[in-house]
């Protein structure tokens, strides 16, 4: 819970000259100040190897705010809190100088030794930095020390376990904040509220009334300049292991007894433990992979994945995944959860569709058509809101029922005040609230689930490319649902 007002802290960003810091972290810190979530008693220390001065660093931070926040103001005061400290993080000797700078900033801003160490760097550095911070005494202050870790948290279960052991040698679990930025999105956080603050949904939220749940996260962008990273990842590890399985856990968990991070985590973990693990020889029955070839998006021709920079021209990396998940517990046995995510699809859209079971018999005429099923659609992005699909009488037409929609648009009301995911997560960490971060047990269970799929796929070359850029993935993805008598509900206007 965010109880502490305006926490005083030094935020140390490792990777301060990088893309993530520039695009997400600096604008988020700026918004936190504008929204009074932090006071004037804070400092940001940027670490990178580039030999920048404070002035150069501040100029770069300024540009990043200009690009992200059109109506920025009071920039000089804001930028005066930013300090740059260049060093190679693999060199233990450099940490003493950093320590001296942090102590100086504590004094300047009257900060009681509170430190947020944000790892916005490649994962291979996380363990080294954590150990050096501890060994050089940067974590033993009067205040709190928290470590924020970016994804990917490992590339499979053994590597995640190794990484976890390294950081746990320096930080306890309650000091570690593993980022999954989907957990910072307004409508992902709303899943719990929609379910547990509405008497009408919870009684129906089970296999007796829900036929299936569909989660789609489509992107129109390709891999852009991230080919090197993406080649070793693919959509399964990039999106399913983390964001998608977190959403599954929130949709399927039991009501927690309290809204604390421990109670919510414990319910999410039970779902992940109940996910039926696949055997390698079953993977092709439950999961489909795809890779985009050249195509066209919004009338613009785009290259195929294998033509992207830093991508192997014969790459076997999947840019699309669709899957059927089965949760073996009393609430969900028999109700499949279908997931799909991919790059170079027609539009950017993340949606959850909950399809309720059909009514027992149809009393209405409907031109011989069957009744449209009730759907609850949770729109995560770009529109934020919920849509409930019902059937209602068609005016003046005796016994004809037609589908109607009840719409709630979250960002139409909250407008530009809906905080960006990173802003929310940095705020939570500053306030010591770990609810919307992933804990080790969740990470281990999700890796364990996807590792079998990755292993099955790595042993057989796929027939790629198998979908054209600008389409909703390969035909096999539709067949996955058709086998069960379902189809994907459209999530974009063009689908
Ligand atoms: N960019 C994004 O949108 C997203 C990124 N992430 C994750 O965030 C992390 C950072 O990504 P991103 O910002 O894109 O990466 P970049 O490659 O853009 O930045 C890497 C940063 O690390 C610094 N660095 C590299 N080696 C050293 C070293 N030995 N000592 C000190 N600093 C060093 C670089 O500084 P310099 O060059 O000055 O040495 C630079 O600031 C990764 O884990 C990535 O997976 C997660 C989600 C989205
Ligand atoms: O973590 C990642 O997420 C983005 C998608 O995030 P969104 O907030 O834009 O939906 C994805 O593009 C990227 O490949 C992945 O690393």
TrEMBL record:
Its EC number is 1.1.1.49. NADP(+) binds at residues 15-22, 49, 88-89, 151. Pfam families: G6PD_C (PF02781), G6PD_N (PF00479). It comes from the Bacteria. It is an enzyme of class 1 (oxidoreductase). The active site is at 243 (proton acceptor). Transmembrane segments: none annotated. Substrate binds at residues 181, 185, 219, 238, 343, 348. Residues 193-489 form the Glucose-6-phosphate dehydrogenase C-terminal domain. Pathway: Carbohydrate degradation; pentose phosphate pathway; D-ribulose 5-phosphate from D-glucose 6-phosphate (oxidative stage): step 1/3. Residues 12-190 form the Glucose-6-phosphate dehydrogenase NAD-binding domain. Keywords: Carbohydrate metabolism, Glucose metabolism, NADP, Oxidoreductase. It catalyses: D-glucose 6-phosphate + NADP(+) = 6-phospho-D-glucono-1,5-lactone + NADPH + H(+). The keyword Kinase does not apply. The keyword Oxidoreductase applies. PANTHER family: GLUCOSE-6-PHOSPHATE 1-DEHYDROGENASE, GLUCOSE-6-PHOSPHATE 1-DEHYDROGENASE G6PD. Catalyzes the oxidation of glucose 6-phosphate to 6-phosphogluconolactone. Belongs to the glucose-6-phosphate dehydrogenase family. HAMAP family: G6PD. This is Glucose-6-phosphate 1-dehydrogenase. It comes from Metabacillus sediminis.
